[in-house]
Specification:
Blueprint: E1 5-9, H1 19-28, E2 35-39, H2 42-51, E3 58-61, H3 78-83, E4 86-91, H4 94-100, H5 104-117, E5 120-125, H6 129-133, H7 137-148, E6 158-162, H8 176-194, H9 196-201, E7 203-207, H10 212-219, E8 226-229, H11 236-247
Parallel strand pairs: 1-2, 1-8, 2-3, 3-4, 4-5, 5-6, 6-7, 7-8
Bound molecules: phosphoenolpyruvate.
């Protein structure tokens, strides 16, 4: 049985005052029946970990370096994230692929570092609108998976997030059939590469304009084990609607 996961990506949002949203969430969900993870900016990570310490809510990073330490100004290692209280890290988000030119091999190296440090790697894949319109979605996702998922992956240390780029922060969402098609494809690819046992145990998240109002329908789609949520994770009340939908799925 795969445990469902509601993961929030705060991106470059959140000052000290926003930790109050996390406190509210912690009061509402001391022991949720699904995994709940919030990935705040690195500046808040340690305090976020303290905020949820008495609960089952977890915190994570939004990126890490492939090396364990050294001359990499501005970067953060996976071990540092762990040390600050993280249990997971988002890798290969389309905004990092776009803003920082991250390639599949960079993401694979980062994922290896995360797994070696004991973090779960949430590896993001997803097509652009152009690629979808050219009917290249599954080829793109397949290529991103082969290139960015390391061989050492297991159901414990790997989570894959399908995030169509054109659905992130736009209010546009693929049809439920389109989500199902990609998630079934990802599941089959994982089973082929890692064997049925591991392939079936990896959690698959959908991400892209998930809101309280559409979450229940999305969570009913085959092979959707939860969501990676941007905008709607910033406010406790919004994220609560998504956690509730997942708990009831
Ligand atoms: C994301 O940033 O991963 C994301 C899915 O954003 P949003 O929910 O705002 O579309």
């Amino acid at each position: 049985m795969r445990r469902k996961l509601a993961a929030g990506n705060w991106k470059m949002n959140g000052m000290s005052a926003e930790l109050e949203e996390l406190s509210t969430l912690a009061r509402m969900y001391p022991s949720p029946t699904v995994d709940v993870l919030i990935c705040p900016p690195a500046t808040l990570l340690h305090r976020a970990a303290s905020t949820v310490q008495a609960t089952d809510i977890q915190v994570g990073g939004q990126d890490c370096h492939a090396n364990t330490s050294g001359a990499h100004t501005g970067d953060i290692s996976a071990g540092m994230l762990l040390d600050a209280g993280a249990s997971a890290v988002i890798l290969g988000h389309s905004e990092r692929r776009e803003d920082h030119g991250e390639q599949n091999e960079d993401i694979r190296a980062k994922a290896r570092a995360a797994m070696d440090a004991g973090l779960k790697a949430i590896i993001c894949v997803g097509e652009s609108l152009e690629q979808r319109e050219a009917a290249n979605t599954l080829d793109i996702i397949g290529g991103q998976m082969s290139g960015s998922i390391p061989d050492q992956s297991t159901g414990e240390n790997l989570i894959v997030a399908y995030e169509p780029i054109w659905a992130i922060g736009t209010g546009k969402v693929p049809t439920l059939d389109e989500i199902g098609e990609v998630h079934d494809f990802i599941r089959t690819r994982l089973e082929r590469r890692f064997g049925e046992g591991v392939g079936r145990s990896v959690r698959l998240l959908y991400g892209g304009s998930v809101k309280p109002g559409n979450a229940a329908d999305i969570f009913a789609v085959s092979n959707v084990d939860g969501a990676l949520v941007g905008g709607a994770s910033l406010k406790a009340q919004d994220f609560a609607g998504i956690i509730d939908a997942l708990q009831n799925a």
